[in-house]
């Protein structure tokens, strides 16, 4: 095969030409679509006539004109990927092309049909599948879009901006003309045409403008869009209140597409996968409702962080995505529990991003190179990028951060910019020096920070000594110290926060106090390989609470004893650190028991740990959702990441043992929590009710671990009596933990009830695929032949394969059956959708973390994939990087 070309950040060059206006006309047909493009072209340097290179894939060129004159073939070059105008005019000109687009398109990029409707997906490089264009984000233009289609088949015609004209045409057709008055890159262009109906509402902005809001979906799903509309209006109000950002058009559309990949922020025409919009209490869980709130917010927030101010090039992707993830995290925090949201976000970061940082797929928040940009829509760009933005806020405070974003929008509205531009706005708005902060964008890897403490009785001083290292990553073996903000406090012997007034750093006194207000949390700026901070005038040895709120995306190792951790678990005023203390204790316990298991020694549950869990469980002053999080053990992947050689079998046995022992020793307490928190009355999506359901279902999951007929009956009754999907599916998951007739009966009952609701069926598929029951690969193979499964539907594909890869004991089965199954599936999927296939094959990337037997089996699958004919660039890049490490 032809070796794909690698693209480098250092090779970025300004375009030779800009586009001022783009007029598109679509004549949509059942077999082909004709696209006419009329583009106003402006040279960057007037009088210089460089070749104009246009991107284009899977297009048939019908005609090309410059300023009204048809071009002959000798004046341009056409190949499978480009249309090159060899010698265009030296000044401004009008470029007109007519192209034919074939409808057979399973890539979910460009223009394609989904469930009988036309839709588009242009980010990152899908616009080149619609017409010949400079498909890069720094080409920003004003667009108009003329759409023609059969009126009976496609009664709704949607595109970006404002609808300025519509009407009927001969032959049963009709048309619509849309105009977007704001400049945008082509990746934000969108078109949706089909059989749709809308839920309509309005929002009045803070300047008094009324904005029409419409959520489009199939008629039968309209009742399930109520929560999405609530989420949209809440996001619009929140963005005004918190960031001062007002919506800029008179119309905002959201369209629901069943097999769309995720969600897309196209200007004024957001397109969403069904699972990210549709919800009802009977069919959607609390987690679904929360995801809809967050993702609706995320895509709306892009209107300013991504659309009005966009990326200069795709290496700057985190400029829009990291910032917007941070904004949606803050939005969800403000509408729910900030502590619980933070715990969830950090858990996700550690599960997905930390493991990426520790493997062959490690890359900086702003990558230095790529083969296929689709492969960099990663947890590093999104979640770690959000942590980088959060560190600005931690360092500057709410007011300083807002000053920074205001300056960013003021300077760069309507521009395509870089990560340095955002950094400069934060720095200049607050007149501060961030020293080596930009390393967070260019240096890969998770910093490891070690802290040792000491108290001097005579001098009444308390010292914190920090040392930091960043492990080597592919292409970056030597690392520099990072700028790490460490939010911290000190607790006295009664568990109360101690007032902080000042500390010494490098022999210099740093004042903390702010007026007459006591300060209990301060931010230490760790910027060197080794650094010491000394607090004075302390009458007793304090217990330090470090990295409060998880103020930096690092791995922190401290000299806190187990007694110190139990003390923090009981008393820390920082909710995140209280949870973290319990997690550190649980991780230590699990790792110790893994060693015992590997030595064939007896597994033992520490009574002090059980007591700590019991105290949290029975503490009525605590938020119930926090309790649910605090009594949940760390994930198996997190524990394996802490091992020199990952052992999925041992970790699974240990986690199962601890869960079962906790259930035995706290059985009555768990039963009480189930009974106390049962649902009653109408379903409500609010924090109080979500927290109650979370605690009830977490304790129910523990009880289901017991080999106890009474508990089995309890769980089954919870399933049968459930009045909402959250409770019903949680009970089903509890039953499905163990193989047997009860499991099979419950799964069959659930499917028979919900077989006509594809989103609920996807939950059913995922639950079975992710199961840890022995030999589950054979069950998953059967699911691929189930009538409900469709390989071309992204939701169904991820439900099965994504679920299976999340089961460490089955994907990493010692006989290689999991690897073989997924490897063969990748090749099958790559022919249909390379973007999804590359996501699946990434599951193999850390194969060297395991024992020799597993390494050989996983490597064999990677080599088999690499040797396949016609492998996509997407999959090639992931496999290549996995094998070279």
From TrEMBL:
<dbReference type="InterPro" id="IPR042097">
    <property type="entry name" value="Aminopeptidase_N-like_N_sf"/>
</dbReference>
<dbReference type="GO" id="GO:0016285">
    <property type="term" value="F:alanyl aminopeptidase activity"/>
</dbReference>
<dbReference type="Pfam" id="PF11940">
    <property type="entry name" value="DUF3458"/>
</dbReference>
<dbReference type="InterPro" id="IPR014782">
    <property type="entry name" value="Peptidase_M1_dom"/>
</dbReference>
<dbReference type="GO" id="GO:0008237">
    <property type="term" value="F:metallopeptidase activity"/>
</dbReference>
<dbReference type="InterPro" id="IPR038438">
    <property type="entry name" value="PepN_Ig-like_sf"/>
</dbReference>
<dbReference type="Pfam" id="PF01433">
    <property type="entry name" value="Peptidase_M1"/>
</dbReference>
<keyword id="KW-0862">Zinc</keyword>
<feature type="domain" description="Peptidase M1 alanyl aminopeptidase Ig-like fold">
    <location>
        <begin position="445"/>
        <end position="558"/>
    </location>
</feature>
<keyword id="KW-0482">Metalloprotease</keyword>
<dbReference type="GO" id="GO:0008270">
    <property type="term" value="F:zinc ion binding"/>
</dbReference>
<protein>
    <recommendedName>
        <fullName>Puromycin-sensitive aminopeptidase</fullName>
        <ecNumber>3.4.11.14</ecNumber>
    </recommendedName>
</protein>
<feature type="domain" description="Aminopeptidase N-like N-terminal">
    <location>
        <begin position="24"/>
        <end position="188"/>
    </location>
</feature>
<dbReference type="Pfam" id="PF17432">
    <property type="entry name" value="DUF3458_C"/>
</dbReference>
<comment type="similarity">
    <text>Belongs to the peptidase M1 family.</text>
</comment>
<dbReference type="InterPro" id="IPR001930">
    <property type="entry name" value="Peptidase_M1"/>
</dbReference>
<dbReference type="InterPro" id="IPR027268">
    <property type="entry name" value="Peptidase_M4/M1_CTD_sf"/>
</dbReference>
<feature type="domain" description="Peptidase M1 alanyl aminopeptidase C-terminal">
    <location>
        <begin position="563"/>
        <end position="883"/>
    </location>
</feature>
<dbReference type="InterPro" id="IPR024601">
    <property type="entry name" value="Peptidase_M1_pepN_C"/>
</dbReference>
<feature type="domain" description="Peptidase M1 membrane alanine aminopeptidase">
    <location>
        <begin position="229"/>
        <end position="437"/>
    </location>
</feature>
<dbReference type="GO" id="GO:0006508">
    <property type="term" value="P:proteolysis"/>
</dbReference>
<dbReference type="InterPro" id="IPR037144">
    <property type="entry name" value="Peptidase_M1_pepN_C_sf"/>
</dbReference>
<keyword id="KW-0378">Hydrolase</keyword>
<dbReference type="GO" id="GO:0009507">
    <property type="term" value="C:chloroplast"/>
</dbReference>
<dbReference type="InterPro" id="IPR045357">
    <property type="entry name" value="Aminopeptidase_N-like_N"/>
</dbReference>
<dbReference type="InterPro" id="IPR035414">
    <property type="entry name" value="Peptidase_M1_pepN_Ig-like"/>
</dbReference>
<keyword id="KW-0479">Metal-binding</keyword>
<keyword id="KW-0031">Aminopeptidase</keyword>
<dbReference type="Pfam" id="PF17900">
    <property type="entry name" value="Peptidase_M1_N"/>
</dbReference>
<keyword id="KW-0645">Protease</keyword>
<dbReference type="InterPro" id="IPR012779">
    <property type="entry name" value="Peptidase_M1_pepN"/>
</dbReference>
């Amino acid at each position: 095969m032809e070796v794909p070309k690698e693209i480098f950040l250092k090779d970025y060059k300004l375009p030779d030409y800009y586009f001022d206006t783009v007029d598109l006309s679509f004549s949509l047909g059942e077999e082909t679509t004709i696209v006419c493009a009329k583009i106003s072209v402006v040279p960057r340097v007037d009088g210089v006539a460089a070749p104009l290179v246009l991107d284009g894939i899977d297009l048939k060129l019908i005609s090309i004109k410059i300023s009204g004159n048809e071009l002959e073939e000798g004046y341009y070059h056409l190949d499978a990927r480009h249309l090159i105008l060899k010698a265009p005019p030296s000044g401004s000109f009008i470029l007109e092309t007519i192209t034919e687009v074939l409808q057979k398109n399973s890539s979910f990029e460009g223009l394609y049909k989904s469930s009988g409707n036309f839709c588009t997906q242009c980010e990152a490089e899908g616009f080149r599948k619609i017409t010949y264009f400079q498909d890069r984000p720094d080409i920003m233009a004003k667009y108009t879009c003329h759409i023609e289609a059969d009126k009976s088949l496609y009664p709704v015609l949607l595109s970006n901006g404002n609808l300025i004209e519509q009407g009927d045409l001969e032959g049963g057709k009709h048309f619509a003309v849309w105009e977007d008055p704001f400049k945008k890159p082509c990746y934000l262009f969108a078109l949706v045409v089909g059989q749709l109906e809308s839920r309509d509402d309005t929002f009045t902005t803070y300047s008094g403008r009324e904005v029409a809001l419409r959520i489009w979906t199939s008629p039968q799903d309209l009742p399930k869009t109520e929560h999405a509309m609530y989420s949209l209006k809440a996001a619009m109000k929140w963005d005004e209140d918190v960031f001062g950002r007002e919506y800029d058009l008179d119309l905002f559309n959201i369209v629901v597409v069943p097999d769309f990949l995720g969600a897309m922020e196209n200007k004024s025409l957001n397109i969403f996968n069904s699972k990210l919009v549709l919800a009802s209490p009977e069919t959607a869980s609390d987690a679904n409702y929360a995801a809809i709130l967050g993702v609706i917010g995320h895509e709306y927030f892009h209107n300013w962080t991504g659309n009005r101010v966009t990326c200069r090039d795709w290496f700057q992707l985190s400029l829009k995505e990291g910032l917007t993830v941070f904004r949606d995290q803050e939005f969800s925090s403000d509408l729910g529990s900030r502590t619980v949201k933070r715990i969830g976000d950090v858990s996700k970061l550690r599960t997905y991003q930390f493991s990426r940082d520790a493997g062959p797929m490690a890359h900086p928040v702003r990558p230095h190179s790529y083969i296929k940009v689709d492969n960099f829509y990663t947890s590093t760009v999104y979640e770690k990028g959000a942590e980088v933005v959060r560190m600005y806020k931690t360092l500057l405070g709410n007011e300083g951060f807002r000053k920074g974003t205001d300056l960013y929008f003021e300077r760069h509205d309507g521009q395509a910019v870089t990560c340095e531009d955002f950094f400069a706005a934060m720095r200049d708005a607050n007149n501060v020096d961030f020293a080596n902060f930009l390393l967070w964008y260019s240096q890969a890897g998770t910093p490891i920070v070690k802290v040792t403490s000491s108290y001097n009785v005579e001098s009444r001083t308390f010292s914190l000594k920090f040392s930091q290292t960043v492990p080597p990553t592919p292409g970056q073996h030597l690392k520099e110290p990072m700028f790490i903000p460490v939010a911290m406090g000190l607790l006295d012997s009664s568990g109360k926060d101690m007032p902080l007034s000042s500390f010494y750093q490098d022999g210099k006194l740093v004042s903390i106090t702010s007026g007459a207000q006591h300060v209990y949390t301060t931010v230490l700026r760790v910027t060197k390989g080794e650094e010491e901070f000394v607090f004075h005038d302390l009458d007793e040895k304090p217990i330090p609470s470090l990295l409060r709120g998880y103020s930096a995306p690092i791995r922190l190792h401290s000299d806190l004893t187990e007694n110190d951790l139990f003390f923090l678990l009981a008393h820390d005023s920082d909710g995140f650190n209280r949870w973290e203390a319990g997690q550190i204790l649980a991780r230590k316990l699990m790792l110790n028991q893994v060693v015992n298991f590997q030595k064939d020694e007896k597994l033992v549950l520490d009574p002090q740990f059980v007591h700590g869990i019991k105290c949290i469980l029975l503490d009525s002053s605590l938020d119930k959702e926090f309790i649910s999080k605090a009594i949940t053990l760390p994930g198996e992947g997190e524990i394996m990441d802490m091992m020199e050689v990952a052992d999925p079998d041992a970790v699974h046995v240990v986690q199962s043992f601890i869960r079962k022992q906790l259930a035995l020793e706290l059985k009555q307490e768990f039963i009480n929590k189930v009974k106390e928190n049962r649902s009653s009355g109408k379903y409500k999506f609010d924090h109080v009710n979500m927290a109650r359901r979370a605690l009830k279902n977490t304790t129910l999951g523990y009880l289901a671990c017991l080999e106890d007929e009474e508990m089995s009956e309890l769980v089954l009754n919870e399933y049968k009596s459930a009045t909402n999907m959250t409770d019903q599916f949680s009970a089903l998951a509890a039953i499905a933990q163990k193989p047997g007739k009860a499991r099979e009966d419950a799964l069959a009952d659930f499917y028979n009830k919900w077989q006509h609701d594809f989103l609920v069926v996807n939950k059913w598929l995922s639950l079975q695929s992710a199961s840890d029951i022995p030999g589950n690969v054979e069950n998953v193979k059967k699911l691929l032949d189930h009538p409900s499964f469709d390989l071309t539907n992204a939701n169904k594909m991820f439900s099965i394969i994504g679920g299976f890869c999340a089961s460490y004991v089955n994907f990493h089965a010692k006989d290689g059956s999991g690897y073989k199954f997924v490897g063969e599936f990748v090749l099958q999927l790559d022919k249909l959708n390379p973007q999804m296939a590359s996501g699946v094959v990434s599951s193999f990337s850390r194969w060297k973390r395991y024992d020799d037997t597993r390494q050989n089996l996983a490597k064999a699958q990677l080599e088999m994939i690499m040797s396949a004919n016609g492998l996509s660039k997407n999959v090639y890049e992931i496999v290549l990087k996995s094998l070279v490490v």
